[in-house]
Specification:
- The protein is built from 28 helices and twelve strands.
- The protein is of the alpha/beta class.
- The chain has four domains: 3-192, Serine Threonine Protein Phosphatase 5, Tetratricopeptide repeat; 193-282, no CATH class; 304-446, Rossmann fold (3-Layer(aba) Sandwich), CATH 3.40.50.11380; 465-642, Rossmann fold.
- Strands 3-2-1-4-5-6-7 form a seven-stranded parallel β-sheet, with helices on both faces.
- Helix 6 (87-100) packs antiparallel against helix 7 (105-117) and helix 9 packs antiparallel against helix 10 (158-171).
- The termini are far apart.
- The mean pLDDT is 94.
- Pathway: Protein modification; protein glycosylation.
- GO terms for molecular function: protein O-acetylglucosaminyltransferase activity.
- Keywords: Glycosyltransferase, Repeat, TPR repeat, Transferase.
- TPR repeats lie at residues 37-70.
Length: 661
């Protein structure tokens, strides 16, 4: 066998993944030709494949001394030096490879990767863009675009990521790295509907549990087109739950949960069974006990340690509702109160006020395991989550038993399905008949609402109706029916109510607020336009307002419209505190009964509708009958002390906590 045949045999073994036999043949060739640069180069690569990195580097350096003009030698040596942690030398050799061959795609891509790993994002981007200008096979070019997309993601530039991934997927529609990056970018924008489509495609291509759970965390979408669309997404959620139920074959990849089942609660259905099934799946992944073992199992007989854990201890509706409760608990001689916030949480005057009154205000690390350990170390008797379901961090923490008794407040007014949460704290005024059937937790129905909400102060300056309407380009001679809710509360049943109000009041206009996410303009507004028809021009989309101007507007509207199925919470307090009448159509679930509960506590049933037709008639009467509207405003104002600054619900809850044993 001559030299070339011998070399071909060695190279074939090398390429077939047999570097040991290839090395043996390379050494035999070098005995005959000790200064053959190509053989030295290949020998070094074969040795590196077997883990002999230092030998491989030495062989490539010897090859370069014999032939310093070979770009591939410098490229491969650069990669080996990078593996050895010699990044500066590696960069020099990759740059040398490109100097020798400016069209060397692999060297340009490798240089970009190395600079990216080294944290030099701008230099890495230049290298990647240079590589993109060079010729390469489609799959190699696609990988380069993915590398550049990852860099843009790290920079926080998500639009280029979407563009790069779209280019890759146009050529390779099932290229999973591009789909995963595209999904991340779509969620950062955020574009929920596009993200769901991408997550569905990933799940179909790679039906692993983690991909199914990530898709599930994106369902359902925030807006539905009609009742059939809502039913479809409900069914899709149930189907995916069923597919994921049973023992999970977990791949070991990190768990990615993009959202809690937040939007599920806006469908107007009983979510208990779905959420219980969901929690059963996650129980296989999330720890039931902290790493150091179970917490204490019995409550302290005298001094009780009570913890509250939330991301929202600042100027947020959750704190507006429960700040008084926390302060009242902290003032009890037999309670020690601990607050647990998060590193990424906002802090403001509300935070400082809460911090100053409790035993300890602890900022949890972003790492979930460390956060669990921190809470467990406080040796609490009772742990209360004010708002499970709004953010993923506290939702996942709640799966772990961190105190003998764990409870939920109604900051997000829906059950959790999580078996480690023992009680759901509510009120007789907030619940309908057979309410326990809506909860996985044991439902506690206090006599009064456990909220001490302060009467909202009039905004400064307090403007006239003429001034506010002029500032917002609203015709003052028309009746304004304001629906001051987040758009994901706009159940499809609301469309017919809007249409009937506009039909019944030719001088009426409905106000809603703009929302800076794509689903508002792309999904909700077209849906409303289809239902309102020729009256759509009387739907006034108002800009998102600073708080003083919002309160000025809310004080002067003719009618505030509560949303069916998931109604006002914080906004109901604001509306009634300003004396503005709010029409409500209660549902059977807590999330649709907050305004009803406030009216019941006020002993006032005038604006509680029994049917959709009743809702429309009440709204029209308020809008068109000025005397009736003024009568309702006066009645609300006279009875406001029955819902603001109240201690009775808080005292009910304190007594319940005290009697736990």
């Amino acid at each position: 066998m001559d030299f070339n045949q011998f070399l071909e045999t060695a190279l074939r073994l090398h390429q077939q993944g047999n570097p040991a036999d290839a090395e043996r043949l390379y050494l035999m060739l070098l005995q005959q030709h000790p200064e053959h640069a190509d053989v030295l180069h290949l020998l070094g690569m074969a040795r590196a494949m077997q883990g002999a990195l230092e030998q491989g580097i030495a062989d490539l350096q010897a090859a370069i001394r014999l032939n310093p003009q070979a770009p591939s030698y410098h490229n491969n040596l650069g990669q080996l030096l990078e593996q050895a942690g010699q990044r500066t030398a590696a960069i020099l050799h990759l740059e040398r490879a490109l100097a020798l061959d400016s069209g060397y795609f692999e060297a340009a891509n490798n240089l970009g990767n190395l600079l990216f790993q080294n944290g030099d994002l701008q230099a890495a981007k230049r290298a990647y863009l240079n590589a993109l200008s060079l010729s390469a096979p489609p799959e190699r070019r696609a990988q380069l675009q993915i590398n550049l997309a990852r860099l843009c993601t790290q920079e926080g530039s998500f639009e280029p990521v979407v563009t790069l991934c779209a280019e890759v997927l146009a050529q390779l529609p099932n290229f999973l790295p591009a789909l995963h990056l595209q999904l991340d970018a779509q969620l950062k924008r955020p574009d929920f509907f596009a993200a769901i489509e991408t997550a569905e495609q990933i799940w179909q291509l790679e039906p692993l549990p983690e991909n199914g759970l990530r898709l599930l965390s994106l369902l359902p979408p925030p807006i539905f087109q009609d009742a059939d669309d809502l039913a479809y997404w409900r069914s899709r959620y149930q189907t995916l739950l069923d597919q994921l139920s049973g023992p999970l074959a977990w791949s070991g990849r990190p768990l990615r949960i993009d959202n809690t089942p937040f939007y599920l609660s806006y469908m107007g259905r009983n979510d208990r069974d779905l959420l219980t099934q969901l929690a059963t799946i996650y129980r296989q992944i999330l720890p039931e006990h902290p790493p150091q073992g179970p917490v204490k199992t019995q409550l302290s007989p005298h001094q009780k340690r009570i913890g509250f854990c939330s991301l929202h201890f600042y100027n947020h509706s959750v704190t507006h509702c429960f700040e008084g409760l926390i302060q009242a608990c902290a003032s009890q001689a037999d309670f020690e109160v601990y607050l647990f916030s998060m590193e990424r949480a906002q802090q403001d005057a509300h935070t400082e006020r809460l911090r100053s009154g409790v035993k300890e205000f602890r900022v949890l690390p972003d790492d979930e395991a460390a956060a669990r350990e921190s809470i467990a170390a406080a040796e609490l008797d009772i742990l209360i989550y004010p708002d499970i379901g709004i953010d993923t961090f506290t939702w996942m923490l709640a799966f772990t038993r961190l105190a003998p008794v764990q409870m939920v407040l109604s900051g997000h007014p829906v059950t959790t399905g999580i078996p480690t949460l023992d009680y759901y704290l509510s009120s007789e005024l907030l619940e309908g008949p057979e309410a326990q059937g809506h909860y996985s937790e044991k439902l506690v129905q206090l006599k009064h609402i456990p909220v001490n909400y302060s009467l909202p102060a009039l905004p400064v300056p307090f403007k006239s109706r003429s001034e506010v309407f002029a500032e917002l380009n609203l015709p003052e001679d028309q009746h304004l029916y304001l629906c001051p809710m987040m758009p994901f509360k706009f159940h499809t049943d609301l469309d017919a109510l809007f249409a009937a109000i506009l039909e019944g009041d030719p001088q009426g206009m409905i106000g809603i607020f703009d929302y800076p996410l794509a689903f508002f303009s792309e999904k909700l507004l077209p849906r409303l336009q289809a239902h309102l028809g020729s009256a759509f021009h009387r739907l006034k989309v108002l800009p998102w307002l600073p708080q003083p101007l919002f309160l000025n507007l809310l004080a002067h509207v003719d009618v505030a419209l509560d949303t069916p199925h998931f109604g006002a919470g914080n906004t109901a307090y604001l509306s009634l505190g300003l004396g503005t009448p709010m029409v409500t159509l209660p549902s059977q679930y807590l999330r649709g009964r907050s305004t009803l509960a406030l009216y019941q506590q006020m002993g006032m049933t005038d604006l509680i509708a029994q049917t959709p037709a009743d809702y429309v008639q009440l709204a029209l009467r308020l809008g068109q009958d000025r005397d009736f509207q003024l009568q309702m405003r006066q009645k609300i104002t006279e009875r406001s002390d029955l819902i603001f600054g109240r201690q009775d619900g808080i005292l009910d809850l304190i007594e319940f906590l005290r009697n736990l044993c």
